[in-house]
């Protein structure tokens, strides 16, 4: 009897380990250097840091694009957005079904649904603002968030009840929050509201395998934070950095509550938690810091797409590990799909790699031959392979080769010393680019100048009002 029971428990724990829960916590526009585990000194992030301490810190963790929408589309599908024409930030268009994640693509939630996962998005969506693009129509069972690329943080600013009535970007920042398809008026600072929802999601779903995408819009502009968080930063003088710090601190509190809930529900061991930013910090816009990386959001330089990145899974990964081979956000889906042997549509092959055998030491060497970037509109490209990185800005006729071990800040162009490497990296990039297509929709940069000006003015007014 005892032996039977032991066998039953063993089987139970095996099946739990094979179907770990997945929580991906993604921040918005957070800098590489703005977490303690990457050396941040002025903003304490103890809870985010605990993910790295309990698991793995990636020093070369990339996203697949240096701005929000395409980075998220890539994470959400496990595929480079250039494969399916998602290479621009979508505009907020509630009637344009071409403006968002193409319906040919399967989301991570859709694939995990095939093996019994219950999935939810809390926070920012930004993968299309039509009803057809709504998360509940893209494989998720729960949604609590906003459809656009950013949002006002204080409930009093949210004056538009119907998300589908917002006509442009600045109006989309003022909609109520959608609970599934129902508009609701949040009562708290948005970051806190999303953390409350994350706790509730975990509590309600702890008995089944789940995937939670906790997609904080913080610390994306507009810079807004409650006094209780601002008070934590008397040592930061610069106003922009102070508000940014307060916003990051609110996220860190939320991460702490998520982790605490996992412990209370006794599912910490069987839950993979990933933390990352969707792109590098736009330093002048929100006071973020990417040092020592060059550049920031939007750039092919490291500061654009190398991000704070950590992962814990007490039941399956070592603790306190630093992993320096390059990895990419696409690996998250590849990992959970491999652990579940979940079937992926053959038209949508994944670009990522199952990281588990690399992190446990079963497999040696780098998971990727290269990690790739193409920015169609600025005609810039990048490829990271091993310690080498090639950057081109074709519109400026520029080619740069860097050794990131020696020169993490991309300050010494060694193109002329090692032409062999230039050729190798170019050839890798060309092979990758062969299965890419041109963008399928026009994006934010294609907004007419007059409209942009009006929206900028509205944003500035909202920020001034909140000062
Ligand atoms: Ca972003």
Please describe the structure with a list of short key phrases separated by commas or semicolons.
467 residues; 16 strands; alpha/beta; Arylsulfatase, C-terminal domain; binds calcium ion; ten-stranded mixed sheet; four-stranded antiparallel sheet
Explain what you see.
The protein is an alpha/beta fold. It has two domains: 20-369 and 439-465, Alkaline Phosphatase, subunit A, CATH 3.40.720; 378-433, Arylsulfatase, C-terminal domain. Helices cover 31% and strands 16% of the residues. It contains 14 helices and 16 strands. The strands form three sheets. A ten-stranded mixed sheet has the order 7-6-5-4-8-1-9-10-2-11. A hairpin with a 2-residue loop joins β14 and β15 (388-393). α3 runs parallel beside α11. It is globular, with a radius of gyration of 21 Å. 52% of the residues are buried. It binds calcium ion (CA). Residues 28-29, 68, 220, 278-279 line the site of calcium ion. Calcium ion (CA) binds at residues 28-29, 68, 220, 278-279.
């Amino acid at each position: 009897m005892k032996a039977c029971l032991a066998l039953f428990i063993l089987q139970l724990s095996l099946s739990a380990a094979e179907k770990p829960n997945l929580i991906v916590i993604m921040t918005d526009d957070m800098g590489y250097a703005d977490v303690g585990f990457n050396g941040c000194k002025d903003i304490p992030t103890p809870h985010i840091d605990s993910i790295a301490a309990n698991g793995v810190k990636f020093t070369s963790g990339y996203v697949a694009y240096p701005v929000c929408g395409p980075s998220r589309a890539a994470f959400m599908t496990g595929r480079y957005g250039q494969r399916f024409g998602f290479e621009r930030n979508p505009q907020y268009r509630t009637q344009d079904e071409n403006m968002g994640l193409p319906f040919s693509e399967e989301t991570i939630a859709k694939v995990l649904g095939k093996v019994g996962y219950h999935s939810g998005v809390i926070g920012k969506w930004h993968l299309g603002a039509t009803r057809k693009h709504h998360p509940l129509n893209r494989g998720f069972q729960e949604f609590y968030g906003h459809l656009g690329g950013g949002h006002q943080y204080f409930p009093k600013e949210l004056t538009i009840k119907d998300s589908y009535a917002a006509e442009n970007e600045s109006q989309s920042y003022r909609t109520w929050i959608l609970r599934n398809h129902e508009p609701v008026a949040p009562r708290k600072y948005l970051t806190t509201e999303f953390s409350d929802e994350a706790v509730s999601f975990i509590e309600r779903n702890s008995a089944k395998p789940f995937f939670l995408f906790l997609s904080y819009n913080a610390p994306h502009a507009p810079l807004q934070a409650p006094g209780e968080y601002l008070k934590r930063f008397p040592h930061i003088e610069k106003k922009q950095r102070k508000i940014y710090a307060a916003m990051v601190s609110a996220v860190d509190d939320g991460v702490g509550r998520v982790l605490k809930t996992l412990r209370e529900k006794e599912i910490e061991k069987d839950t993979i938690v990933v933390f990352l930013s969707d792109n590098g910090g736009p330093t002048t816009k929100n006071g973020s810091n990417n040092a020592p990386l060059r550049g920031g959001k939007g750039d092919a330089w490291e500061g654009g797409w190398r991000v704070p990145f950590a992962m814990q899974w007490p039941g399956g990964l070592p603790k306190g590990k630093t992993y320096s081979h390059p990895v990419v956000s696409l690996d998250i889906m590849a990992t959970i799909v491999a652990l579940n042997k979940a079937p992926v549509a053959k038209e949508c092959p994944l670009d990522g790699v199952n990281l588990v055998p690399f992190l446990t030491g079963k497999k040696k060497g780098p998971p990727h031959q290269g990690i790739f970037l193409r920015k169609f509109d600025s005609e810039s490209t990048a490829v990271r392979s091993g310690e080498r990185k090639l950057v081109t800005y074709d519109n400026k006729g520029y080619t740069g080769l860097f050794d990131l071990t020696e020169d993490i800040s991309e300050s010494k162009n060694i193109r002329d010393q090692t032409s062999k490497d230039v050729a190798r990296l170019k050839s890798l990039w060309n092979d990758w680019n062969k299965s890419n297509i041109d963008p399928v929709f026009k994006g934010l940069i294609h907004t007419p100048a007059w409209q942009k000006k009006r929206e900028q003015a509205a944003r500035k007014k909202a920020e001034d009002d909140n000062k």
